[in-house]
Amino acid sequence: MEMITLTINGQTVQAPKNATILEAARSAGIHIPTLCYHSELAPEGACRLCVVEATGARTLVASCVYPVAEGMVVKTNTDKVRAARRMVVELLLANHPKDCLACQKSGDCELQNIAADLGLRKIRFEGGARKAHTIDASNPCLVRDQEKCILCGRCIRVCRDVQGMSVYSFAERGFDTIVSTAFEQDLGKVECSYCGQCASVCPTGAIVEKDDTEKVWSAINDPDKIVIVQTAPAVRVA
Ligand code: FES
């Protein structure tokens, strides 16, 4: 494999010629925050949280999609970079429900953790008016709250590229963009394999697994049924 040498934050790093800056940085133990990126999915470069300064580029570049080059000098933590990241997170939070402490994902939410890492206590912006969405709990395994969706597209990619299902896709445009099922049907009405992958890659509480504990226990306690408990849903074997 052909390797190249670059410098990240003053540290000499060797990386495969076709690597991205993010991959090179992570291989050297240098942290760059990400949201839309997931190591098991194709990168999309959508959220711009992973921006860095790199020689040869006139603006900040998204490190998850920007390729390394021989002799490149990268800076991942300058004032300019941090200001851009703060802006990205503040804009996301401006239109995000402020119920973190009551959210099922609290403590395990990537957006919440990144905001904390950036020391964000106040948001400078007020969110714009958007079409309101109700919580969709129609799927036997998943609960979907579109108000918490940050449009990272991870659910779309994992469902399409890993599961081969394509339950989700982007719909509408600009500020009104949403992640939608076909014809905006409820999740309980679409062809879903109940694999739970969309919930596992969702960085926020937009898609979470339904807590079926009670249902599973009552089935287990029914002497006429044997229950195999899977990730979701519980499968009954008569
Ligand atoms: Fe790179 Fe979103 S993580 S653009």
Question: What do we call the CATH topology of the largest domain?
Answer: Ubiquitin-like (UB roll)
Q: Can you summarize the main beta sheet?
A: 5 strands, mixed
Mean pLDDT: 89
The coarse overall form would be: globular
Terminus-to-terminus distance: 54 Å
Number of strands: 11
**CATH class categorisation of the largest domain:** Alpha Beta
Write the layout of secondary structure elements.
Elements: E1 3-8, E2 11-16, H1 21-27, E3 51-54, E4 61-62, E5 73-75, H2 79-94, H3 110-117, E6 142-144, H4 154-162, E7 168-171, E8 178-181, H5 197-201, E9 207-209, H6 213-220, E10 226-228, E11 235-237
Bound molecules: FE2/S2 (inorganic) cluster.
FE2/S2 (inorganic) cluster binds at residues 34-37, 45-50, 62, 64.
Structure, explained:
This protein is of the alpha+beta class. The chain folds into 2 domains: 1-128, Ubiquitin-like (UB roll) (Roll), CATH 3.10.20; 132-210, Alpha-Beta Plaits (2-Layer Sandwich), CATH 3.30.70.20. 22% of the residues lie in helices and 17% in strands. The chain is built from 6 helices and 11 strands. The chain has helices at 21-27, 79-94, 110-117, 154-162, 197-201, 213-220, and strands at 3-8, 11-16, 51-54, 61-62, 73-75, 142-144, 168-171, 178-181, 207-209, 226-228, 235-237. Strands 2-1-5-3-4 form a 5-stranded mixed β-sheet, sandwiched between helices. A hairpin with a 6-residue loop joins strand 3 and strand 4. The longest helix has 16 residues, at 79-94. It is globular. The termini are far apart. The protein binds FE2/S2 (inorganic) cluster. FE2/S2 (inorganic) cluster binds next to loops. This is 2Fe-2S iron-sulfur cluster binding domain-containing protein. It comes from Phascolarctobacterium faecium. Residues 2-80 form the 2Fe-2S ferredoxin-type domain. Keywords: 2Fe-2S, 4Fe-4S, Iron, Iron-sulfur, Metal-binding, Oxidoreductase, Repeat. Residues 140-170, 181-212 form the 4Fe-4S ferredoxin-type domain.
